[in-house]
Fold this protein.
Amino acid sequence: MTKRSPHDPISKINGETKYIHDMNLPGQLAGAILRSPHPHARIVRIDTTAAKQIQGVKAVITARDLPNYTFGPTKIKDWNILAENRVLFIGDEVAAVAAESKEAAEAALKAIQVDYEVLPAVFESEEALKPGAPVLHPETETNQPMLLNVERGDVNQAAKQAHIVRGGRFVINPIYQGHLEPIAALANWADDGITIWAGSHIPYRARETYAAAFGLPEDQVRIIIPPIGGSFGAKYVLKVHLIAAALSKAANRPIKIVLDRKEDMMTAHPRVPLIMDVQIGADKDGNFVFKDAVVYANAGARVYWSPNIVATACTRPDSVYHFQNIKAVGHLCYTNISPTTCMRGFGNAEMLFAVESIIDELAEGLSMDPAELRMKNIVREGETTIHGYKLATCKLDQCIERVKELSGWNRRESLPANKGLGIALANHVSGFRAIDPRFDGSTATARLKASGEIEVETGEIDLGQGMTQTYTEIFKKVLDLDGLVIVKSGDTGRYPFGIGTLASRSTVMGGNAVKLAAEQLKNKLLEFASTHYHGEASISNGRVQVGNQIFSAEELAIQYRSANAGDELAVRATYVPNTELPDQTSYGDPSPNYPFAAHVAEVEVDPDTGKTTVTGYWAVHDSGIIINRVRAKSQVVGAVAQGIGWVTMEELKVKEGKVMNPSILDYRMPGPLDIPPIEVDFIEEPDPNGPLGAKSVGEIALDPVPGAISNAIKHATGIRGYELPITAEKMWNLTNQ
Amino acid sequence: MDEQDTLTIRINDREYQVNGSPTRPLVDYIREELQLTGTKIGCGSGECGACTVILDGKPVNSCLIPVASAAGKEIQTIEGLRETEDYQALAEAMVETGGVQCGFCTPGIMATLYAWKQQPDLYEGSVKKALKNNLCRCTGYQSIVQAAEKVVNGEER
């Protein structure tokens, strides 16, 4: 009997899939974390004596009990396991306890005495850069861990000659990823190393980071990833995992930490808040002549993944249109808020909100149809874009035509009052060369087991998008034997190295590796059958035929082992994409291929309350050949729903570093009644670099949503929202000011 | 009620004697004592619906129900529901329409869909209204609604 994969939809539907909070280890203790109540303070004294005396408490740790290495998940190494001398944000980890029960752990947290000397704090990016602002990390001297400059062409000259220029200051507020499974970790520190069970879709970077934190070799840190109950960018490399491991060492028992929803939200690492000053110019015929952008990104108190978001915001949308001359300055700023990080869309969706809004303003100024103005300026198949992206395939023109047709774009001029239609475009990548300069491909192994089943192993991570099924389908398209194909992933101690599931890379990077493994296994199997049974071998109907003999996968597996000292027929294949690491000027071809999309939103805005209702939505995608239409469509619809939340209702309200709405009740996310019918279509042409012709779909599906909805709101009301979310209150204020 | 008193509750057609605090949330009893971990905890405060179970035919947030108030009532968790025919039809439809991604909200959603299937009139026939207390961050609900409608329309044919 074959056990069903925990990633199988039926396992999830039936409640059989075990997430971390469903798992327990023998002898496990409950872990809990004491966090700073101040946005910036010096720790004068910590007294854990009383906490240690509480019955059931097995360990209480502070920075004094821990190693003090320099580490962090990016190039900027500014992490610690627990706060050393100062706390830098409300929620910063100060101490941790392990106890026999949650109640004892909570009591111990209350019994730890900490004296703080409160220090001046800074919360806004631009304020943090001013002279005299409190400096968070004295070793960097300023609050600016990164400054990015990108320029191609001559923006100043182009701006002088432009016929029309539009722009403004666009603001992205922090939003919460909204993963339904709260952040959790199980850790066991044993003599031969640490094992951490944790939701991380970039587990090898997590392993490297945690090994550095404890001064251990990487192979003494093993990360096992049970199915992840939603992430959207929240579950990368997290201090909760480290603290669980540190507690396990101190208590000499396994530790489980599950953040409750309030703690998860109070200390959340939300989407990086951005302030973007953006201008775009065009000539009198509507040809764009320049784009100029200055970005201020609020990293919060430490660097999680924010530099990469700044780099993306400053470059990626430039490969949707021919701006001809571009300039971007990206300031990454430390402030005393909880560290911010990635969320689906990753800087691209944010900058596209600005770009797509401005393009509609230009269309209005030029008295042109917004779709026509876009069509005039888009990148085309076969081109190399301004930053060096080589577009082997690009069906953006067809996406625009199709989305106009589906949405009934031509009715735009005759809509009733308070209704509007808005269009927006987007691109994305399918993996990104600069995530890890050392390697950006993927490895898969495939093994014909004695049972005739084939086990495929990958280092990429299924975070609910359906990677397991996608890889099974890719494998079976190449080699379809009568045995099951079982895809395994999520264990750094057992499976091949993988960069992880980010930058929309799993289908193309991991999928190409799986395809290569399938091809190699097929060749080896046929070669063996041919030599062993003396004749030409071929596969039909799931079986291998040599002459007039027909063999099942199981029969061949047994024969192979008999002839090979008991070894199973196994292959290991690595996909090395033909990508380029962007150079010092951010030029290069960083992805195997590039998906594109055109979306149209229809809204109705209530003139009395300012409330926006999205009444219709159409999304047309060029993601190459679609491997599974049901799952790809579910990705798009889900992303559009997230976008509707982002634009119309969601904001993590952070006041002086404190999250004011740390509950699902107060941080409202879309429910079924907030989502209109969403129609999805795909322009399917194979991409030469995608497995079976595929490109990515996960993130690009969110990228155009803010632009499409805000353009529809402008069309309905004549009012442009420059700050997300465009809530009813904001609309009412804009209307009545 | 004295803490020493025992309560009797019925879960998935079996009776259990509950000892300990009568105010303990039903979800903790289900997950920790009975090891029925198909019911998930997303928020612990009745806002996300991941812990939905059926109590006397109606979907409820089991994180908000003290075990004492479940005494004498009929409770069904995903482990019980999944044996029923109606559930299996819904599950099959969810796979076909792509109603599952990360799966964390799914058992709670299945409980609500099951209750809706039994008594659609409670929700004015609208599956979207039935689902208004179940948060799903992955799917945008469309495929879930389609799955429910598919089952109902399939029966009408």
